[in-house]
Design brief:
Blueprint lengths: L3 H12 L1 H7 L5 H8 L3 H4 L1 H24 L1 H20 L4 H19 L1 H9 L2 H32 L3 H23 L14 H9 L2 H31 L4 H25 L5 H24 L4 H13 L1 H13 L6 H25 L4 H20 L11
Helix pairs in contact: 1-9, 1-10, 2-9, 5-6, 5-7, 5-17, 6-7, 6-10, 8-17, 9-13, 9-16, 12-13, 12-16, 12-17, 12-18, 13-15, 14-15, 14-16, 14-18
Length: 393
Amino acid sequence: MISTARLTILLAMTVAMGPFAIDAYLPSFPRIAETLGVEVHDVSLTISVYMLAFAFGQLFGGALSDSFGRRWVMLSGVAVFSLSSVLIALSGSLTELLIWRAAQAFGAGFTAVSVPAIVRDRATGREAATLFSLIGLIMIIAPAIAPTVGSAILAVSDWPMIFIFLAAYSAMMIVLLWFGLFAKLETITRPPRDYRLLPAYLAVLSNPSALRFMMIITLGFSSMLIFLTHASYIYQKWFGLSEFGFSAVFAANIATMAGCNFLNRFLLKRMDPDHILKFSVPVQALAIGGLVAAAAFDIGLWMFVPCMMVSVGSLGMIGPNAQACAMHHFEHQAGTAASIMGFTQFMLAGAISAASALVPESLINITLFMGACGFLCAALALAPAKPLHAHQL
């Protein structure tokens, strides 16, 4: 039996491929644009393509892991990610870059979606929420250090080396997963008999209790993604902060999320995850209400920054508990449930974020979009629901 510490570290390192692939190459946009003879704005298309392909990778990866086993689906996803990273480094045009970037993202989604399924294979309830919380804590580090890693590579080499680094990292993960994880988890690699894909999707979609928690995850994530989409405008253009000031207030959000994650692990010793959601989600909604008030009445940074810290940081509690509650309903089709959860989260959150970019960019408009997500999320969390029980499919 694999130890909880080893399981947590290996799963977190696997999921970290996604944030590294998104954030590590951000400092290299000008160099990529110069190399390929395009505008920097054109290079930013690689982010949109990544998010879309990542969502579809999750949609298919989790369900197939129920059919063929976690081992082969997860390892094949990492292999696709690694090979695509090499091909991105060799790209000579924007079209090639976009094609291989989509393939890389599909592999990342194919891999990442197996993580909540593996957690559900091992645990439910408080134990599952604790595992998700531990994985989330390690995951907070990845997006925080990824741009620094990218900048360090650019200091000694050019942008293709960032993707060579990603290829090497993912190749290392194949070895670690093969010998360090799956050698100890043979029971989760045996597929069930008579597994059918379409009925499995329909079974998950017909479970309203699980869908409620999936929507809580999606709406909570959407509010943060809206902020990320407009973060530079909010702090640098609207409030006039310097690059250093922007980095400082942005880092405060990460620190708050880590703090909420630690608090969540403490509370899980005494409370069930669905009970924690009943106050953590409303806290996020109240914080977003503070953002709307600060924007409407031009109150200033002294109110806006703390409210944003709580709004983003509360996801350190909301995410792990909502994941555990959603996955609790599926004993035999955890991969399919994870597929729908991941696909819904990234597709719907991406669409909401894109919609927020279509309206005139102002602080009040941005916070109102966040507010709509936050208040609906709170309504779902506070809605009457049956006690959690394992849903046999």
